[in-house]
Amino acid sequence: MANPFYLQVIPDDRPLCDRSIEIRELTSFAESGANVVLYSPRRYGKTSLVRRIQRDLAARGAVTVFVDFFGVSSVDEVAARLANGVFAFTHGREPLWKKALTTIRSFRPVLKPDPESGFSLSVETAAAERRGIRLLEETLESFGRFIEQIESPVHVALDEFQEIVSLDQALQIESAFRTRIQNHRASYFFIGSRRRILLGMFNDRQRPFFQSAIAYPLPRLPEDELAAFVRTQFTDAGRECSLDAAIELVAAGASHPYYTEKLAFLAYELAEKIDTETIAAAYDRLLGTERPVFEATVLGLPPGQRRLLQALAREPTEHLLASSYVAAHNLGSIGGVQHASRRLEELDLIERADPDGAWSVVDPLFAAWLNRQRERRVE
Ligand SMILES: Nc1ncnc2c1ncn2[C@@H]1O[C@H](COP(=O)(O)OP(=O)(O)OP(=O)(O)O)[C@@H](O)[C@H]1O
Ligand SMILES: [Mg+2]
Asked: Which CATH number is 200's domain given?
């Protein structure tokens, strides 16, 4: 039997653990045409959740457009991905497809046979001379005309939306989006894991998106739900897993959606029976598979930030700037710590649970790995 655990976006036909409250609330926002900023640390299940919500909205007659801005490198590409999202949904759905073709004129869809999915869809600009912000504005305006011409509710998911901030004309892109979409009869979800950057777009008075969407943080999964889910997945796939073993596995994965699934995925490969030894062996493998990413992250940081990260992995603190903490972890000057913490927070490597809460490393496995490294150095 195939391994029942997933390391990518969860396919539409596979079960999700829980998220029933989130699905209900977010669906209700979508149906009332509200805009939402959906954010969490990496790999909490944002994309899987939104895909699921869109699948159900589409089954009830909505037009759902999904656009992923990950790695986007120019304004033209932002526009192209948006157009692609519209064509990808409408393809094969007459009369929507024809409406999309007649209204969205800045791009042409290009369909090519694909051995895996049947066909692949890309877009090319219709008028080669049109580029940049103007192309994006035109695409957004034409999408607006498309919406006006149809009766179905419309939901648009813009995944990894904060990526547009890294582009040269970031503010103009934000402005182009904001001014156009505020007239669209549609619900927009802005999704991302670079929380400081994403929320900065919506919380800063000077920015076009200021206070234009409902902020919706996605939490980790509840431990008991996750344990029950993991256990069912194991037993349905013919593995023996007691509730205690499932609870132990979830604790080892820190209730983190992705790490827990990956731990379960590795445990499934290792043994017929899931027990303490299997979990420990799977955990070592998990650390091994994540090591290259952790190493690269640490190597990319200047020494001051590296030291602060190591300190917080070892000892989370409410008083980052207390002289005793700075001295105990050899962090140098208070000014240096302030600068390093700002930078690490921007990178989403450290966070403060709430405004007065403790500072800690965002990724629990990364923290565990940093501590193992330190223990090795000390030995
Ligand atoms: N509800 C869930 N039930 C079970 N597993 C989940 C759930 N949500 C997320 N996961 C696990 O987390 C992994 C990541 O999910 P997904 O890609 O949707 O997260 P994401 O927040 O969009 O990640 P990223 O920040 O990398 O974009 C999935 O492959 C799965 O292993
Ligand atoms: Mg995602």
From this structure: 3.40.50.300
The CATH number assigned to the domain holding 332 equals 1.10.10.10
Pocket-testing residue among 14, 44, 69, 249, ligand 1, by greatest number of atoms within 8 A of Cβ: 44
pLDDT in tens, 73-98: 999 999 999 999 999 999 989 999 99
Q: Is the CB of 6 under 6 A from ligand 1?
A: yes
Distance of CA 183 to the CA centre of its chain: 27
> What is the domain count for the chain?
3
Distance 49 CA to ligand 2 centre (A): 9
Distance between Cα 47 and ligand 1 center (Å): 7
pTM equals 0.93
With beta carbons less than 8 A apart as the criterion, state whether 258 and 224 touch.
Answer: no
In a domain, 3, yes or no: no
Residue 9 lies in a domain: no
Q: Which domain holds residue 54?
A: 20-217
Identify which ligand lies nearest to the alpha carbon of 45: 1
Tell me which of 188, 217, 246 is where a domain ends: 217
- If you ran DSSP here, which 8-state letter would residue 317 be given? B
In a domain, 15, yes or no: no
Position 91 in a domain: yes
- The answer to whether the CB of 9 is under 6 A from ligand 1 is yes
Dist CA 243 CA 157 (whole Å): 37
Q: Compute the distance between CA of residue 24 and CA of residue 82 in angstroms, rounded to an integer.
A: 26
End-to-end CA distance of the chain: 43
**Cβ(29) – ligand 1 distance below 6 Å:** no
Answer yes or no: do 274 and 328 share one domain. no
Which of 301, 319, 323 is closest to 310 using CA atoms?
301
| pLDDT (0 to 100) of residue 130 | 76
Task: For ligand 1, atom 6, name the residue with the nearest CA.
Answer: 257
